Amino acid sequence: MVPEWTLWNNLKWKEATRMEYDDKEYYIGEIMNPELNALDYVVELTFGDDFTRLFGEDKFTLSPGASSFAVAERKVKGGEFSWAGTYTLNVIGAIPAVVAPVVPVVPVVPVVPVVPVALTKEQIVAKVLAKNADEPCSTWKGMKVCYQKRVTIEGDDNDYFVESIENPKSTTQTLEFTWKPEWTLINPASTSFNLAPGEKETNIARYNTKGGAFSWSIYSLRIFDQVSEAMTGNGEDYRGGQNKTESGKECQRWSYQWPNKHPFAPSAYPESDLIDNNCRNPDGDATIWCFIEDNGAKNKWEKCLPLV
Fold first, then answer.
1. What distance in Å separates the CA atoms of residue 173 and residue 224, rounded to the nearest whole number?
2. How many Cα neighbours within 13 Å face the side chain of 286?
3. What is the domain partition of the chain in residue ranges?
4. Which of 82, 126, 201, 235 has its CA 20 to 30 A from that of 277?
């Protein structure tokens, strides 16, 4: 028979009959605090000398709706049994249930980071040039080059390279820049441009690696005269800026003896204009040519074509 709940001191008590299992005798009881009480009850349950507690505490607290089991083993199996003296159950007191305070939910206002407004190209150019008005100039590859320095500007976290290039010659010059990948050209719009006599342009490039190692070898430059690119005959009079062969190989500088040794030193052929690594025809060959920068090539030299 399933034991029934009985109300006792505002609590519900379910007393099980005596049980036998595995050649032993047990007592099992359950006490519950009904939810309607809305109070925490402190209960003390003490078993008599004939029983050993196996489960549950002597003293415990029951919150509304909670229950607790008590299990005890009879020390001496068999013999006359009486519920009297099996246990003593006392309700020590009632405690008002602790109600957690309602904490108002304060809406979290997201902090929107202030994103600095990027400077325009025109603003960058103006700020960079303002720092270089009085810098000295020098001559490089026949061009007048001024300031050429590394700068930082207000309102921007990047490093910039700036230089001004002016054409002092009497003919229009074409300048072709190849920038290294760690630099981004800001001004002018193209890496290749023409400079008329007396005209100048400003190069401004942004260093893409903030705080990284810096080298002034940041671009390669080819300059050629638009007039001198015209070639007549076999090109002995060619004075243009072509420095690559027909197959696209880079030319070796005439003043270098590596990777190819040769007798065409600039001092030995002063009228042939053997400057830099530009294609020339100092020996009256069929056309302009140059030694190539490839020490593994079968042929040490190759023919060239004018740039125009």
1. 6
2. 4
3. 5-96, 121-210+217-225, 228-308
4. 201
41, 12 Cβ separation under 8 angstroms: no
Beta strands in 64-191 (DSSP E): 67-74, 87-96, 137-140, 143-151, 159-166, 173-179, 183-187
Is the separation of the CB atoms in 87 and 70 below 8 Å? Answer: yes
pLDDT in tens, 60-107: 887 888 887 777 787 777 666 565 566 777 777 666 545 556 677 777
> In the β-sheet with 39-47, what is the strand arrangement from edge to edge?
59-62, 39-47, 87-96
Rounded CA gap, 221 and 219, in Å?
7
Q: Measured at the alpha carbon of residue 217, what is the angle toward residues 259 and 182, in degrees to the nearest 5?
A: 115
Cα–Cα distance for residue pair 65/15, rounded to 1 Å: 18
Whole-model pTM: value is 0.40
Calculate the CA 132 to chain-centre distance. Answer: 34
Residue with token string 């415990």: 60
Q: Three-state DSSP class for 271? A: helix
Q: Does domain 5-96 have CATH number 3.10.590?
A: no
